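Newbie here. two chains, one complex. Structure please?
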Amino acid sequence: MTVFAVRGRMEFALMKIHEIKEILGAELLCGDESMDSDVYSACCSDMMSDVLAYVKDQGVLITGLVNPQVIRTASMMDMICVVFVRSKTPSDEIIKLANDCGIVVMRSTLRAFEACGLLYTAGLSRLPGDRNA
Amino acid sequence: MIEMPDTLKFHFDVDGSDFSSAGEASVVVKKKLRQLGYPADIIRKVSIAMYEGEINMVIHANGGTAEVEIHENEIVIILSDHGPGIPDVNLAMQEGYSTARENIRVLGFGAGMGLPNMKKYTDYMKIDTKVGEGTTITMKVYL
């Protein structure tokens, strides 16, 4: 965690994508060129309907669901990174789609609970004023 | 001199036989709107609403068509299918109500948020539906 940004009166953490990779001990599958991008927050869900309904400016999606809709959903929500947990392995088709959409994809051996806990402990939190995600 | 048309129109056939392709049209529309330089919040509203609609067409209606019209003051999305229709629109508009089967839920959809989300992200939404004939949903995002 390197930088704090200020929105209104509240400070919140910025985290770089490469820091997320390091914290989760994750394997990068595509999107090497975006590793220095900043994210403010993350969400975790296997239900893409909920991601579409509740996500607001979270840059990272942590999920154990593996299908192309994960990438399309992340793209629709302007998310820049998807972490597949529990060693779930996306197909070549999914990786190609992520490349087309400019989304970083990683794979972690961690369970979703552990991945969220590590990122939260490292400072990645919810955005100020966001009560839903 | 070439005159630009007042309205840009895009047509998509949404394949209902392959769930993994659901959402392809919305991805294309999002890219087009980016190329045309629309603000990020407008692009997000249009693409999320259309994506939800596209997913719905694949889940419930075996596909259909999507028309996107970009006018000077609004973007119009028209989704049409020849599916089973919606027997009770008020019920379908309630958050959490879904008729999607378990095989759709395991794919990450069918939480009963599709139609409410489409309404949430658009400035206007109209549902024309007839049981046994199909559904046409018209959505507008004002510019």
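Moderator note: Chain A has one domain: 3-121. The interface with chain B takes residues 46-50, 52-53, 65, 67-70, 72-73, 75-78, 93, 100-101 of chain A (CB under 8 Å). Thread marked as resolved.
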